Amino acid sequence: YSISIIHPKEYSALSNMPEEKSEMVDDNWKKTTFVKSVPMSTYLVCFAVHRFTAIERKSRSGKPLKVYVQPNQKETAEYAANITQAVFDYFEDYFAMEYALPKLDKIAIPDFGTGAMENWGLVTYRETNLLYDPLLSASSNQQRVASVVAHELVHQWFGNTVTMDWWDDLWLNEGFASFFEFLGVNHAEKDWQMLSQVLLEDVFPVQEDDSLMSSHPVVVTVSTPAEITSVFDGISYSKGASILRMLQDWITPEKFQKGCQIYLKKFQFANAKTSDFWDSLQEASNLPVKEVMDTWTSQMGYPVVTVSGRQNITQKRFLLDSKADPSQPPSELGYTWNIPVRWADNDNSRITVYNRLDKGGITLNANLSGDAFLKINPDHIGFYRVNYEGGTWDWIAEALSSNHTRFSAADRSSFIDDAFALARAQLLNYKIALNLTMYLKSEEDFLPWERVISSVSYIISMFEDDRELYPMIETYFQGQVKPVADLLGWQDTGSHITKLLRASILGFACKMGDREALGNASQLFDSWLKGSASIPVNLRLLVYRYGMQNSGNEAAWNYTLEQYQKTSLAQEKEKLLYGLASVKDVKLLARYLEMLKDPNIIKTQDVFTVIRYISYNSYGKTMAWNWIQLNWDYLVSRFTINDRYLGRIVTIAEPFNTELQLWQMQSFFAKYPNAGAGAKPREQVLETVKNNIEWLNVNRQSIREWFASLP
To answer: What sequence ranges are listed for the domain Aminopeptidase N-like N-terminal (predicted)?
Structure first.
């Protein structure tokens, strides 16, 4: 591409390549011409006309790495500049390939619909994903910046240097960027446990998506713009990352790295398909990569591996809906997988590839003595679930209670996630899954707690309106979380992981109605309202949310709105938006929803974020849904029917669990049959709500009995 831009003389221009020359056209206009680019895809072309300021780092290889921001935000770009430098050098080294352009700029766009876009040489960002202020931002914000920066850096190789042949192989861009971002950040921030956090960010959440009948394969045929837009979803990103993690473990990290280098070299400045990547890894590892991995990319879903006896295992497709037909929609592979099964006995860990043609299952050649436990899928490295027959789950619950540290934190979170998913799919009694939470009074690790909070949030949301059962659930979890809440306290101290844990734990204590926690949140909120004290940065979000929920009135709401309008830091704005959405006063929620129509108050980029925040409020759940229905024509005219965020907003109905709500959803979708980019999300949300209704009928009784039987 040869690009030149004519622009007002007081502005500067940027594009993918460095500036070649700049000349005045007349008294007011200037023409900037850029160096001709390398061969690249149309979707990566970019230009910006701005009056921003830049901060610069240099890569080890001498490339200028700049971050462009509004002049008053310069300090908040320092962290992004540092992380860029560290991760850029790491990837040049890891991929054994120098970055292909003479420079790499990043720019923070004040109102930006997506999270970031990897335009070659000029990456655009939403401010929340690039600008970090150590005095005002939380540790989670810092991690977000590091992750998005690393994700976009990966794309400079996977996506830009080698581009997918067509959008059906989108995962070659997004799955890879989602996987390598964890390696990149782990290199720069070694004590953040990023290689385990991939479980929380990608593996566990997408295992829920991929157990629906309305999921889709990683490699999926797409032709229309709406279909292309809709595959920018959890399957392409998170399942892509998860299967790469499993593959790396199977063929070894060294051979995986070598295979990536072969692939990048072979297809530099060209297009590639999934089979090309498998070929490169096969060349590096001499293992049947294509034969194994095609079973994970060409059909949707994943298996549950069941352990019977001590070492026999069988596989079958895992579906959340126990009544669904597991052979549908038809798959040439019949929903069987070639599974690299990692397992550990006593002290050894190894991999056996479970061939999908072994219909009767396989026996692992384990060396088990005494009460040794055969751990299948340690650290949840494989993209499948594990169920144990016989009394093994009871044994695991006992082992957790007597000494939970005999299992790694990743294993503990894996047990919890598998058990609650298996119970939801009616493959395990809920009483067994709930027994696994008995040990939590002695759990002090981030990974398991984060997963417990996620796993039980489904039960919590299903029984929110059950006046008899919900208080029992609250009381139990208040008791389980109290020891670790007391241990952590309300001082914002400790390591990065401790700060993330504290925010999660205190937030959960508040959610479960713990009086002390809610009292502390309200106290901090009230002194903030009076202007007498600022809130510790890692507690801000939970204080804005629960302070507003617990003691927020109109005056508090108006003050929060003023602070939202005053602050220039986008990460702080986002927390305040959540606070505003947490008020119990429905008149204020109605006013808030109407404000969404005024981009001078709520930026266009934040409209769907706010609707989602309001839907998390039990007083706003139905209001948000009704508002979407009443304003659908307005939303379509403002965002277009092919906007993926508009398409996805219908998923706020996922907690619905009555026949009436289901009927209302079906009527709404029938009234507006053109779903655009929302076709898949509509299917998924209808399936989820039907599952919820069925789930309540089947499980209400046994869950009630478990909570009622507690001492």
So the answer is: 1-44
In the structure encoding, which two tokens stand for residue 641, read together? 């029917």
Is 155 part of any known ligand binding site? yes
d(CA 610, CA 19): 40
Q: Which of 683, 630, 631, 674 is nearest to 653 (CA)?
A: 683
What is the signed CA dihedral for 152, 55, 89, 59, rounded to 10 degrees? 130
* 216 marked ligand binding residue: no
- Return the ∠ at Cα 45 (arms to 44 and 50), rounded to 5°: 120
Residue 710: name the closest of 538, 545, 480, 506 by CA.
Answer: 480
Residue 84 has pLDDT above 90, yes or no: yes
**Contact present, 554 and 585 (Cβ < 8 Å):** yes
Going 463 to 468 to 472 to 474, the CA torsion angle's sign is positive
pLDDT reported for residue 97? 98
Tokens at 618, concatenated: 């039990």
SS3 state of residue 349: strand
Per-residue pLDDT band at 442 (split at 50, 70, 90) = very high
pLDDT single digits (tens) 506-518: 999 999 999 999 9
Q: Is the pLDDT of residue 368 over 90?
A: no
Cα 275 to the center of its chain, rounded Å: 27
Asked if 167 and 159 count as a contact pair (C-beta separation under 8 A), the reply is no
pLDDT tens digits along 215-268: 999 999 999 999 999 999 999 999 999 999 999 999 999 999 999 999 999 999
Contact status, residue 407 vs residue 443, Cβ threshold 8 Å: no
Is residue 346 pLDDT above 90, yes or no? Answer: no
> For residues 317 and 302, what is the distance between their CA atoms, to the nearest angstrom?
6
Q: Is 152 a catalytic residue?
A: yes
Half-sphere exposure of 76 (CA within 13 A, CB side): 26
Cis amide leading into 329 (omega within 30): yes
Angle made by CA atoms 205, 682, 293, in degrees to the nearest 5: 45
Task: Identify residue 250 by its one-letter amino acid code.
Answer: W
Provide the token pair at 384. Answer: 């499948």
Q: How many residues does the structure list for the chain?
A: 711
Domain boundary assignment for the chain: 71-296, 305-393, 631-711
Query: CA-CA distances (angstroms) from residue 349 to 361, 381, 410?
Result: 20, 12, 15
pLDDT digits (tens, 9 = 90+) for 578-610: 999 999 999 999 999 999 999 999 999 999 999
Query: Among candidates 287, 286, 264, 289, which has minimal Cα distance to 275?
Result: 289
**The residue type at 613:** Y
- The pLDDT assigned to 316 comes to 98
CATH of 71-296, one of 1.10.8.80, 1.10.390.10, 2.40.50.140, 3.20.20.70: 1.10.390.10
Domain at 305-393, CATH from 1.10.620.20, 3.30.1360.170, 2.60.40.1910, 2.60.40.290: 2.60.40.1910
Q: Is 7 annotated as a binding residue?
A: no
> For residue 631, which phi and psi values (nearest 5 degrees)?
-110, 20
- End-to-end CA separation in angstroms for the chain: 72
The values of phi and psi at residue 353, to 5°, are: -85, 120
What is the reported pTM? 0.96
* Residue among 92, 118, 152, 208 flagged as catalytic: 152
What pLDDT is recorded for position 303? 99
Neighbours of 128 (CB within 10 A): 24
